[in-house]
Amino acid sequence: MGLLTRTSPRHRKPEALAVAALLGVLVAVTARAQVDEYQLKGAFLFNFAKFVSWPKGARDSIDVCVAASNGVRDRLLASLDGKKAKGLPLVVTRLDLESARSCEMIFLGGEDSVRLSSVQEAVAGGPVLLVGETPGFAEKGGMINFVPDGTKLRFEVNRREAEGAGLEISSHLLKLATVVD
Predict the structure, then answer these.
(1) Which range has the worst mean pLDDT, 5-14, 77-86, 127-136?
(2) Close Cβ partners of 22 (under 8 Å, ≥ 6 residues apart)
(3) What is 9-179's CATH number?
(4) What are the structural domain ranges in the chain?
């Protein structure tokens, strides 16, 4: 089944509003250069959780595991604290490779992106969204990569890797991304 699915007009409206909100974040960054980079990335992670579909299964939260310095993890935690996506709370934890398959999303901070191959090995075959922030991350097998563009923050999507992990990325999110298959 492809990534594009048909929805009735009344079901498109909430998705369109959320995409508009994500676009608002992009515009707000240009207007407010003082926004903390990881608060902004946290807002993106929140929207990724809303626009990525994981295989059906019993879960009580969306676990966002972070491999980055404690300061980065704390800022992501603060920006996601109390937020829910798809009716589930987002829970930010430190990445532990032994339990990496229990994460729905893994964020590899700049200095930890060198661990991509270890993380890929740890989650092989599991539906885990790999998000990074270094040049070439998506081309090397990451699924979403943050890319600074002047005063804006954009992102790349490796759709093939996401589909291979059993994840569906909404066409609404793909419209905002650079696709690097």
Answers:
(1) 5-14
(2) 44, 47, 173, 176
(3) 3.40.50
(4) 9-179
